[in-house]
Design a protein that fits this description.
Blueprint lengths: L18 E2 L15 H13 L4 E4 L2 E2 L8 H17 L6 E4 L2 E3 L4 H6 L10 E5 L9 H10 L3 E5 L5 H4 L3 H8 L3 E5 L9 H12 L5 E3 L5 H9 L4 H18 L1
Parallel strand pairs: 1-2, 2-4, 3-5, 5-6, 6-7, 7-8, 8-9
């Protein structure tokens, strides 16, 4: 599906047919796309590099982005209608969310106010500086509800960098790990990039996502160059995205 060509080291050359399961491109819902024009610019940019299957994941966070399935559905329909109007019928747009594990998350689970990816997977996140006290309880409850938790951008949680064994602990508990592709280009800093590479080399990463918020980040994604060693580890993950979510 994806082939390693020694002469090509740009990451973008391997993203044709990639299924993105983490981004913030629905308009006006969070810190991503501000309006429909932003959304269409990003999606058009995705299309130009071969990404035509997109699972949108706006933040659901009680304190900052209290989005609901209804508000997300409304924004999704707005974008979908514009894509059809522009003749971009081949772009498959699905909607889920990136759920912050906070004090309200388990209530959403209990009340079935969630939108899992493919009715099976829940993309979750936690604060960057410390783990929420209910993380273990919440991820266990995800499993009891019949879903599979995917932890977004594990390489970005700084409190885990000095406790690397916790990544293995997540895996042992059935939590999948989703790498941000921008982490491979030093976008979040050298330390995050270092941990991202280490997770890749240790075969801890299960899935990948762009986590794109704006058109500038998309351009930065296009500029990322990777070594063959990194590509050898990353390409099976890109394939897994396609096999699991296409």
């Amino acid at each position: 599906m994806f082939q390693i060509l020694i002469k090509k080291n740009f990451l973008v050359d391997y993203l044709g047919h990639f299924v993105d399961i983490h981004n913030h491109i629905l308009p006006g819902l969070d810190d991503g796309a501000k309006d429909i024009e932003d959304s269409l610019d990003i999606i058009t940019g995705f299309n130009e590099i071969g990404i035509s299957h997109i699972v949108t994941t706006p933040h659901v966070n009680q304190n900052y982005y209290p989005n609901t399935t209804e508000s997300i559905h409304t924004a999704h329909n707005l974008v979908q209608n514009q894509l059809l109007h522009l003749g971009l019928k081949h772009i498959a747009l699905e909607s889920s969310s990136e759920y912050m594990i906070d004090s309200n998350f388990e209530n959403l689970l209990d009340q079935k106010l969630i939108a899992p990816i493919r009715n099976k997977f829940l993309l979750v996140e936690m604060p960057f500086l410390q783990s929420p006290i209910n993380f273990d309880q919440a991820t266990f409850k995800i499993a009891t509800k019949g879903y599979y938790p995917i932890l977004a951008h594990p390489e970005r949680y700084f409190f885990l960098h000095s406790n690397y064994k916790n990544y293995g602990g997540f895996k042992s508990k059935g939590i999948s790990l989703q790498l941000n592709l921008l982490s491979l280009g030093n976008y979040y800093g050298k330390q995050v990039s270092k941990i991202a590479e280490k997770l890749l080399m240790n075969d801890y990463i299960d899935f990948a996502g762009t986590d794109i918020h704006n058109i500038n980040q998309l351009q930065l994604l296009k500029d990322i160059k990777l070594s063959n060693r990194t590509l050898n580890k990353l390409i099976p993950i890109l394939n897994r995205n396609v096999e699991t979510f296409y």
